[in-house]
Specification:
The protein is 42% helix and 15% strand. It is α/β, with parallel strands linked by helices. The protein has one domain: Undecaprenyl pyrophosphate synthetase (3-Layer(aba) Sandwich). Strand 3, helix 5 and strand 4 form a beta-alpha-beta unit. Helix 1 crosses helix 2, helix 2 packs parallel to helix 3 and helix 3 packs parallel to helix 5. The longest helix has 22 residues. Bound molecules: farnesyl diphosphate (FPP). The site of farnesyl diphosphate has 17 residues, from helix 1, helix 2 and helix 3.
Length: 234
């Protein structure tokens, strides 16, 4: 990387292209997700080594329940094995958090998630947020419901609702995303970090997620560094 690098504080990644990667090799789609999970671990560590404070990855959307049961079970099993091997899988100084509605998950997954979130990992360099059963609209709806409860109880007047209050009631506890990367050639947000992407820079890349390397992340950060972010100013 060149020396004019501006590190984003928060990177979001839509891990797309696992199915196509597997199809190209005549493998079942779940093999693409398996490779995708390995790449996720490698990229988490690279973010930690670069000093990125937050990495949010889209692992399972509120729409992904429409996929065949076998594929959903495969993704959940990957999640199980990641969570069970957390200490080895996540890497030192990486805190793991989950964003999304976890109510429909099997009890063992819920327990593993809680264990992972409460693990004492010492000094935190990078917080990885795994978006699981996550949807941007669902996240905003959830925040609005939390605020509406206070309004209904009478402890909050509707005129006093602020953007900061909505931010504080989201699933994520990170600053807004500075850079959102979508590999696989698709150029959409697909309900990822809707509120948190108001001023994000987007980098779309042709590489499929299972082929994504540390160099691709470096290239996306370099592209981000070249952009002139004005946040609506001049
Ligand atoms: C999108 O590719 C990918 C997903 C819906 C699943 C992503 C999940 C993982 C990488 C595993 C996560 C595991 C951990 C431990 C975080 P796609 O299936 O839509 O690909 P396609 O567009 O080529 O069909």
């Amino acid at each position: 990387m060149t020396d004019k690098i501006i590190l984003p504080e928060h990177i979001g990644i839509i891990m797309d292209g696992n199915g196509r990667w597997a199809k190209k090799r005549g493998l079942p789609r779940n093999m693409g997700h398996k490779k995708g999970a390995e790449v996720f671990e490698k990229i988490s560590r690279h973010c930690r080594d670069l000093g990125i404070k937050y990495l949010t990855v889209y692992a399972f959307s509120t729409e992904n329940w429409k996929r065949p049961k076998e594929e959903i079970d495969g993704i959940m099993n990957l999640m199980r094995s990641y969570l069970k091997n957390m200490q080895k899988a996540a890497g030192d100084h990486i805190a793991v958090r989950f964003i999304g509605d976890r109510t429909p998950f099997d009890e063992d997954i819920k327990a593993l998630i809680e264990e992972a979130e409460n693990a004492d990992i010492g000094e935190v360099i990078t917080t990885v947020q795994i978006a699981l059963n996550y949807g941007g609209r669902d996240e905003i709806t959830h925040a609005v419901k939390e605020i509406a409860k206070k309004a209904a109880e009478g402890s909050l007047s509707p005129e006093d609702i602020t953007e900061d209050m909505i931010s504080a009631n989201l699933y994520s506890a990170s600053p807004e995303a500075d850079l959102i990367i979508r590999p696989s050639g698709e150029e959409r947000l697909s309900n990822f970090l809707l509120w948190e992407s108001a001023y994000s820079e987007f980098v779309f890349m042709d590489v499929l997620w299972p082929d994504f390397t540390e160099k691709d992340l470096d290239a996306a950060i370099e592209e981000y560094s070249k952009r002139n972010r004005r946040f609506g100013g001049v």
